[in-house]
Amino acid sequence: MEDTNSINRELKKQQLRKQIVSNPNPMRTGSSSYQGDGQEDEGSGLGGSGLLRRGIITSMVVVLIVIAIAGVAMYQNTYRRYTEYTVSWEADLLAGDGSGAGVESSFTAYEDFGENLIKYTKDGATYFDAKGKAAWVQAYEMKAPIIAINGDYAAIADQQGNQIYIFDKNGCQGTATALLPISKVSVSAKGVVAVILEDARSNYITLFKKDGSTLVVIKSRLSGNGYPLDISLSPEGNQIICSYMYINQGMMDCRVVFYNFSEIGKNSETRLVGGFDEVFKGCIVPRVHFLDETYSFACSDKGLSFFSSKNLASPELLLQVPMESRIRTLFYSKSYVGVILDNEEGEAPYRMEIYRPSGELALKKEFNFRYQEAAFDGDQILLWNESGFEAYNLSGTQKFGGEFGGSVSKVKTGRYPNSYQIISSGKLTEITLQ
Q: What pTM, to 2 d.p., does this model score?
């Protein structure tokens, strides 16, 4: 009997052992990976779950690090102010540009062209690459060269003369000869050029193709529309905004008109699709400009006026922004219009106001810097005088303000973040803020 009991106890122990071995992980749920030989399948069970969890945690850490780096970069770009810089490289802009042995011309000006620079003088134009080397040189003779730039096209005309040179980044694409003295020039992003030509009794708006051939001529009598003050082509070259000064009951008034040279404008013999007289009574409108195919603006001695050409057949006045103080400087890009005013109420002597193409105010900022020039470059506002410059972002934070040796004639952003290119005494210097 005792043997039987012993046998029964032994059988129960063996059954208990089998139960313990067959369920090595009592916390697992769902299907079992236990196989007939009592071995666990590789990659499953606690080992597989652990690897998966570690992978998820690693991915989350990487994402958090990327977000943190982006946040730091955004913070520095928005709020950090730099006080020092290092010189990255320097190039002689007079070397190999045909202007003479290291001597600036009596008239020399630099403008942004494409992603780089163009220099123009009375004797010719030079296009420089990103490192300040002359990519091409075009010789000409002009008494008073004026320039218009739109994207990758530039037009240089002899004011009160007759010659026009049309360029893209590869060099001269065409030349045109006007029949009357030139007063204003504009160019589209496609290379179409518009000029205002002066006569004793009439004025003409003449359009040229990029090869220099005549495209369209619009005649304007002084006794009719008036005397054209400024002109601007849209990027595609199908629209023109023009300001006229005319005599109204013995008083000088201004009007802003729109021309259209697409199929829409064919409904009018003169291509005129819109005109605004009443809102510019008693004003002088010396500057008009197309920002893009839809938005344009006019700057008068009383403020800014913003227009929309969403309806090509009938442009619309969106908004008028009166200026109580004198406008000292007007500057603009494709995305913004900026004015600098005498700041009569604040502590600082100057105030900049930045507007979006719709007329919405984007920034108002007082400042003390006694600037001579102002420009947009990307998402930055650059101010400079002969000895230094200041850079602001569109949040109003001053990124840099300091002196620079030599006689500064232009400042632009550089090839890398926090870098700037400065033209001074015939040299192009790239600096990096620190």
A: 0.81
| Total residues found in the chain within this entry | 434
Query: DSSP letters of 359-405?
Result: S-EEEEEEE----SEEEEETTEEEEE-SSEEEEEETTS-EEEEEE-S
Q: How many CB atoms lie within 10 A of CB 412?
A: 22
| Separation CA 147–CA 294 (nearest Å) | 23
Q: Residue 167 is encoded by which pair of tokens?
A: 């360029």
What is the band of 223 on the pLDDT scale with cuts at 50, 70, 90? low
Residue type (1 letter), 410: K
Q: What are the strands, taking DSSP E only, across 209-302? A: 214-221, 227-233, 239-248, 251-260, 272-276, 287-290, 295-300
Beta strands in 82-181 (DSSP E): 85-92, 108-113, 116-121, 124-128, 134-139, 145-150, 153-158, 163-168, 171-177
Please state the φ and ψ torsions of residue 383, each to the nearest 5 degrees. Answer: -120, 140
The answer to whether residues 393 and 429 touch, using CB atoms and an 8 Å cutoff, is no
Check pLDDT > 70 for residue 96. Answer: no
Is 257 within 8 Å of 203 (Cβ atoms)?
no
Contact by Cβ (8 Å): 195, 185: yes
Share of the chain above pLDDT 90, in %: 65
Residues above pLDDT 70, as percent of the chain:
83
